[in-house]
Write a sequence for this structure.
């Protein structure tokens, strides 16, 4: 079963391990004998496949030109932006793409200038408001830029009643770090991210909008309960400070939490939980370095400044971000999916409350810069690649008549090999190795129930469920038994340990 599903979305089917060989060698002999890397070491990416059981990746569209953002209008339609200035409406059932008329002209001269994100008003069905961010140029010279946000009503595939809600002045020479991510929060408030516009120090200046998360009402006015209303030093529109180039914002209606993803300098992309009035530290605090290699700021911690939920080293250029809510991939419920530009994959972060338990890459087979991710109402995941494709990751409903029970034979040795061996064979994360008696005997001596509990709930650097979110408790107990050997009544001879 696991073999088949590993082949499902995987690049490594050719490197299947010789799991079926009755291997009498000890781990040490095997490693000594190896003259080249052993084909399969349970590396983390492979685990992703285990978590994508029965899933299928479907390409819905290709030929888009540098798409940037997307937003669902309803169950069947979504809007897609292209950086060059086109806004498109895509109908799923009809598989039809329609360009929207009367989109304002955007500057697309350089780098990241162009049409950026799009968001649909929560009350769209009755008011038809669509919000979009883009780069506007100084009308006089045309050579200085800023981030702007407009809204307009979508009527008969044209934008009408367009109005400017935000002009993140001043104009600047920098053709990058615009931010521009949009996300609706409670009470129809709109969160907007503004990048530091390549001037890191602006991010700590409360009088400026660069390097901030803003919060506006849906008509562009300032909500009275914004955290800095009444503070003369800080712009009323600011919700949080000290961010670098955030291209991902997501408000999770279930928990009421706002998440942000930002590009770090060299290293140090961050996932942040954004709270009102907080300072996220850029450029005082960062886990990254300047592209020239020199240090930035003053380390990684300071009182009064927030720590990221997660940071990436090396940098993957993390851009879009969503919290998964849906029925199709229940094992991801409440987890974060972030898109990597440079890393060319979807990063899955197992979020447990406000703690990231594990991170691993998914969907490398897309092999594109991931520009946006959205979850459809049926729980399928839509993924937009900068090279012009729109994908949907889905899991087909069980065919009628299928029993839907557990796979007939559960093979603990395979689960061990695919999921647990990555740490427990190699000792990664200081995982105790069953092949090393000194490390393993103390665990064999523990009460089995305690060990089961530690495996299921996680302990120390051991992630909960050993990273296997789709594994049942019973499967985890069987795999633990496989690792520990059958329960002995006394502490006579230590049990044989798994061979691979
Ligand atoms: C990301 C690395 C990693 C993965 C994957 C992983 N483990 Fe662990 N595991 C650890 C570490 C680290 C420890 C030691 C934790 C400690 O005691 O601090 C550990 C400890 C354990 C223990 C001993 C627990 C105890 O009570 O002392 C068992 C049993 C175990 N893991 C089983 C599993 C199983 C089963 C899987 C696969 C389903 C798995 N692990 C996957 C890292 C991992």
């Amino acid at each position: 079963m696991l073999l088949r599903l590993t082949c499902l979305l995987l690049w490594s089917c050719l490197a299947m391990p010789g799991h079926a060989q009755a291997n009498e060698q000890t781990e040490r002999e095997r490693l000594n004998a190896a003259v080249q890397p052993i084909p399969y070491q349970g590396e983390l990416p492979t685990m992703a496949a285990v978590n994508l059981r029965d899933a299928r990746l479907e390409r819905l569209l290709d030929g888009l030109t540098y798409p940037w953002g997307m937003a669902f209008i309803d169950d069947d339609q979504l809007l897609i932006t292209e950086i060059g200035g086109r806004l498109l409406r895509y109908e799923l059932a009809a598989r039809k793409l329609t360009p929207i008329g009367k989109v304002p002209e955007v500057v697309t001269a350089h780098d990241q200038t162009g049409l950026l994100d799009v968001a649909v008003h929560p009350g769209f069905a009755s008011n038809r408001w669509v919000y979009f961010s883009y780069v506007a140029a100084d009308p006089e010279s045309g050579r200085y830029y800023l981030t702007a946000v407009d809204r307009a009503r979508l009527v008969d595939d044209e934008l009408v009643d367009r109005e400017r809600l935000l002009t993140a002045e001043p104009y600047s020479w920098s053709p990058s770090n615009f931010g521009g991510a949009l996300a609706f929060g409670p009470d129809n408030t709109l969160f907007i991210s503004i990048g530091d516009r390549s001037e890191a120090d602006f991010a700590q200046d409360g009088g400026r909008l660069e390097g901030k998360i803003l919060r506006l009402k849906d008509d562009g006015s300032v909500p009275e309960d914004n955290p800095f209303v009444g503070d003369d030093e800080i712009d009323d529109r600011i919700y949080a400070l000290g961010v670098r180039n955030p291209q991902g914002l997501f408000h999770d209606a279930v928990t009421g939490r706002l998440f942000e993803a930002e590009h770090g300098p060299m290293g140090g992309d961050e996932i942040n939980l954004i709270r009102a009035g907080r300072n996220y530290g850029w450029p005082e605090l960062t886990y990254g370095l300047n592209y020239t290699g020199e240090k930035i700021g003053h380390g990684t911690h300071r009182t009064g400044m927030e720590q990221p939920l997660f940071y990436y080293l090396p940098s993957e250029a993390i851009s879009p971000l969503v919290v998964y809510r849906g029925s199709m991939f229940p094992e991801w419920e409440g987890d974060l999916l972030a898109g990597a530009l440079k890393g060319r994959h979807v990063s899955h972060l197992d979020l447990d409350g406000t703690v990231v338990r594990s991170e691993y890459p998914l969907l490398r087979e897309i092999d594109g810069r991931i520009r946006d991710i959205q979850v459809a109402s049926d729980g399928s995941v839509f993924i937009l690649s900068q090279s012009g494709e729109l994908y949907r990751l889905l899991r087909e409903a069980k065919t009628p008549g299928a029993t839907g029970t557990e796979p007939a034979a559960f093979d603990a040795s395979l689960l061990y090999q695919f999921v647990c061996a990555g740490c427990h064979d190699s000792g990664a994360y200081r995982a105790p190795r069953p092949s090393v008696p000194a490390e393993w005997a103390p665990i064999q001596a523990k009460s089995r129930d305690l060990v089961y509990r530690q495996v299921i709930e996680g302990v120390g650097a051991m992630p909960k469920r050993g990273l296997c979110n789709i594994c049942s408790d019973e499967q985890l107990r069987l795999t633990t038994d496989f690792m520990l050997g059958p329960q002995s009544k006394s502490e006579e001879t230590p049990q044989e340990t798994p061979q691979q």
In short: Residues 1-25, 31-50, 399-408, 490-500 have pLDDT under 50 and may be disordered. The CA atoms of residues 348 and 360 lie 5 Å apart. The pocket of heme C is lined by residues 419-420, 422-424, 428-432, 443, 446, 450-451, 454-455, 459-463, 466-468, 476, 479-480, 483 (CB under 6 Å). The two ends are 19 Å apart (CA to CA).
